[in-house]
Amino acid sequence: MSISFDYTNALGFMKDSEISHLKNFIYQAHSWLHEKNGAGSDFVGWVDWPILYDKDEFARVKKAAARIQNNSDALVVIGIGGSYLGARAAIESLSHSFHNQIGQKTQVYFAGQNISSTYLAHLLELLKDKDISINVISKSGTTTEPAIAFRILRNYLENKYGKQEARQRIFVTTDESKGALKKLADKEGYEAFVIPDNIGGRYSVLTSVGLLPIAAAGLDIDQIMLGAKDAYYKYNNPDVQTNDCYQYAAVRNILYSKGISNELLVTYEPSLRYLSEWWKQLFGESEGKDQKGLFPASVEFTTDLHSMGQFIQEGKRNLLETVLQVNSPKIELTIEEDPENIDGLNFLAGKTMDEVNKKAFEGTVLAHIDGGVPNLLVELDQINEYNFGELVYFFQKACGISAYILGVNPFDQPGVEAYKRNMFALLGKPGFESEKLELEKLLQK
Length: 445
Ligand SMILES: O=P(O)(O)OC[C@H]1O[C@](O)(CO)[C@@H](O)[C@@H]1O
Fold this sequence. Notes:
five-stranded mixed sheet; 445 residues; alpha/beta; SIS_PGI_2; SIS_dom_sf
């Protein structure tokens, strides 16, 4: 077993038979994804990607990663949303917990995921004495946050190494033929990698978007693609009764239809924090539209049991939890006997910390079900590259099916434009003059 799904702990809140009612619709949703004829069908390239991915580009990614590892102490990955969360999820969950301080040949830092001058200035300070490379990632090539960071970091690199050497240290991942970034890459001769037209940002971690930073961090991208390929076959069966991935999509929709409005992704390993961030964008951008959708949030236990635990146990009853549980930790630690036993913990002596973590999980699930929170379980035997590939594919496909069940287009994100229009208008971008006046009036009220 690598990944499995279990909804037994939701059965107090729904009937098993409700899943069979969705059977025919899920056949339809499956066919929309595979035949590429449902809503948003121009963006389902990720479905066959683990089989059809461009092997030449994949080889180029590995070569570029090796070059980065050989000449750089650090790689700065510039991107936002789907252009960085997948890589960060992989690197954080698969590497040493303190990978930038220990055990990784090339450190990896992220920029362009915010507009904080303090963050970027601190990053530049950290990079001062290091040899660095940059991977700037933007499908559109025009997203403001990464574009600002790239302007500053590119300038920094050119000052440090001169234009010629900087060219060897800048890697661009963008559209194959269009956009500002592609134009710049062509003009300057930067090595460029492709985000396929038919794969949207949040579904792109298995393309060069994720693979170059992941490989530069020293992780095994062959294993990731193998896990994804096996997942392609494992979750290729249209029958919801035997397809775990489709069951997850079905169950979360059934619970949503009963008034649950928030899904918490629960982890017990801090290394999975960015996997949760990636998952939130995947489901949030795919489903949150037409005034519908489960709000995807995440909690890290047991840490957050001491902050959010009270609310989850007894607050407003509109929550569901999906626990992403890893059965074997990367490293075991045994709790020792203390002759003085002042803390009274000798009853734990001889047990591993993971045994305690697992009992915390079991106890929490029971308490939360008692408190009215249905619990779903996605279980991994361990967190490694192969399972990461499978997990990404599991969630991507579940998300596509789930959004179709919900009745929304899983592959667009029209709502993201609203803040951008206002920001551009307020900043005085040419073409936004009338909006600027209107918004300034509103701000003065
Ligand atoms: O890769 P790009 O075009 O810079 O976009 C980055 C992110 O911005 C969005 O377009 C909107 O938030 C996301 O869908 C995407 O992942």
